[in-house]
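Entry for the shared binder. Reason: the reviewer on the internal report wants the predicted structure included alongside the sequence.
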Amino acid sequence: MEELKNTPLVDEHIRLKALMAPFGGWNMPIQYEGILAEHRWCREQAALFDICHMGEFLFRGDIVAAGLEEVFTFSVLSIPVGRSRYGFLLNDNGGIIDDLIVFRLAEDEAMVVVNAATIDNDFAVISSRLKGGEFRNVSAATGKLDLQGPLSREVLVEKFGAAIGDIPYFKFIRTTILGVAATVSRTGYTGELGYEIFLPADKVRELWELLLADQRVKPAGLGARDVLRLEVGYSLYGSDIDEATTPLEAGLESFVNFDKEFVGKKALLKQKQEGLTRLKAAFRVGSRRSPRHHYEICFEGETVGTVTSGVFSPMLGCGIGLGYLRPEVAAIGAPLTIRHDKVSMEATVVELPFYNGGSLRS
């Protein structure tokens, strides 16, 4: 059994009596005070997440000549310096090796932020597709904290200056925090106004303690993060998307630029031509029951899919979930039954996001 990795904050999580559990090969905090309390704090105040398990790669060189422009489903070259873009790293069959964000640091520099469980494979795949340039895995040396919630802006502005308050959505600044170089990005995974802060790993504890000394800030674990992201319809790699799933099936075609070349493009074009045989659908349960991963999804008595993500939504007061269905069954308003052993719950296919009342674009 593989030994779990720890973030630089593991001692802090233990001190705060966090419930720890494996996630993507890491020993991570699932909850502190409780998932519902932490969820509510993020929706109303400012929640602090340890995201040091994520991976970061740095590229330097000619984006076109080195081949970086053809690695992802989006154009790196067209990202303005100071902005970031979300999209996919695909295999030859169009399956999603990972979903990620690329930050354009300079004309000849980019940072790629990837999921924790896929760091080594992502680095190997991207490296194999590059024809030049410098490409480094700086994950171990990089710390990452996410401050999310409607009060996150005022907290960071008070502590680190007005420039942070001027960052638009999906833009970032390179600045100095605690005497070291840092990148502050207005991005996140919660549907709320929020920021992701990248800085040297040996400074993460100091920043964690500084932020938590503010009464507007409380720590939140991966449990609350999962509820928050699902309420706004964000996919989770390894559950809702994976190498056997294409962006078209996942309803994420808007993050695929068919006007450029990328690995997997031919397979996606073929899939578009032949038509989809399954489609990711969102459903809302007619009770407070929570659908769970791998529960069966039934339509008119026939099993038509399985749940890939499901939780109780505090904002909606009912269960919500995602799963893959035949396109005709995935129609908005279609009645479903979610089953597992003796558990049965009625549900309805709905549009995403489930919840759109957050402060994301405030």
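Summary line for the report: The first strand starts at residue 19 and ends at 23.
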